[in-house]
Give the backbone structure.
Amino acid sequence: MGGLAAAALALSGCQSQASAAGAASSSSATPPPDAVRPKTPAEALARLKEGNARFVAGSAIHPNQDAEARHAVVEHQEPWAQVHGCVDSRVSPELLFDQGIGDLFTTRTAGAVLDDTIVGSMEFGIGSPYEVPVLVILGHTGCGAVTATVAAVEANRENPAAPGEVVDIVDEIAPVVRRTKPLDDKAAYIDEVVRANTVSVVDALLKRSKIIRDAVAAGRTKVVPAVYDLDTGQVTWLS
Ligand SMILES: [Zn+2]
């Protein structure tokens, strides 16, 4: 495998040398706009919004997903955004933001709840050396973890039950359910809890992590709550 990878890298090196020598004025010498890494929270957010707009419109370009992109980040990665979302099979960050290999750090838990290793993984991306300029906390409509927690709290307000260690997820979301006023429309209520939970995760994260709090205070990083719509594909930004 090492030999194959080395051969592929050597081949790719030959090709770029050949194209540089053969056509100095070729546009391939200038990296496309998407090859420039966003450095500020505003630039990173704009890039995510552009990618989501392409995805919603059905005109995704699937950047950085070919063999060349794969080889380019073997020795060094420089992701420019971090997304913490739900494990739901319909909410894949690279797909819905139309990004590729080496672009995003991602963490996912049911309901996007936090735990120690998840917070440590976020600090890995936000701290030195990566200093990722934006962290999105991404909830989504119709979240199963939120739906299950709403049902468990309705059955037992103070001690909601769930099988196995799923109860750890329910315990994280239950306080948000208890303080969110019920609505007659159940689906609308679930989505209301999703929004509240997403904002709550941002607040909890900033309380919990000095590394992330310091990065935000210094203006290096922005932590942004957002909700993905399963049907339209649209990401709604909550701040
Ligand atoms: Zn979910």
